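Hi C.,

You asked whether I'd gotten around to modeling the 182-residue construct. I have! Everything is below, sequence then structure, no commentary in between.
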Amino acid sequence: QAPTETPRPSSEPTKSFQPSVSSMPSVSPTNTPPCQDDPLGWYDSDGPTFNCTWYSIGSNCDDSGDNFENFNKTANQACCACGGGFKGSQAPTETPRPSSKPTTSLPCKDDPPGWNDMFGSDYNCMWYSNKSNCEEFGDHFANFNKTANQACCACGGGLKGTHAPTISPSIKGKASKKRKLS
């Protein structure tokens, strides 16, 4: 058998694609999902003034971000500005809506103390706390210029959050004080 001649290289580039393996990884941009405060509309236990926007100012995250939990999260957990929030492909949770039932997170005092309705001492805040008395009668029979729904904690009234400013330790070892609006 006669030997075959080896084809000579052409001066034209080859038109077929030959994949090659590189030892260096290719650099491609990664799409980092944007951060969203979680839950949306979060604010701390002192009320809507102290929201993620407030925490984004100055050193508020460092000073108070581990305190004043609300909706089961602190600012350092809920707010992007503090390193928390939601970074992912699913939507963050919505802020729970306030319920018509009173919460027990802050102390509440019937106001005025010892209140009863216009029919006498038997119809006091303790009586209104039973069954559906707040719903059925709480907007009627005012005494001391207040109805049960205004005077009784059990009905969603009373005085809430009437405690003195507190100093509590934070995880970072700093003392945290109630904030001032400046």
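If it helps when you're writing up: The first helix runs from residue 52 to 55.

Thanks,
B.
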